[in-house]
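Appendix B. Chain record.
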Amino acid sequence: MPIIEFPLDDGAVVAVEIAEPEEGLAPAGLGETVARAKRSLNQALAVIHPVSQSVLEKIKALSEPPDEVKVEFGLKLHAEVGAVLAASSTEAHYRVTLTWKRPKEG
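Structure tokens predicted for this chain:
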């Protein structure tokens, strides 16, 4: 599979395997580097914070907030733009699980 190299803040590089070559990138042989990312991995993953924060703020604003919250979303790493929310079709895919633990009446 093609590889995109993402620099880390300490100067190291992490290789990320991608399922399909991005538009404008030439296919390479198995395990060959296709592109170097324009942003560091930390910069690319910075998208996670505002998305997660927004979801959690809305959940905390519920009249009866849950005891547990689980939020899942897919990310795709892109050499040009960094991380983007993965879509299952034309819409982004989120899975939110809220759990309330009520005390047993006794």
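Further analysis of this model is presented in Appendix C.
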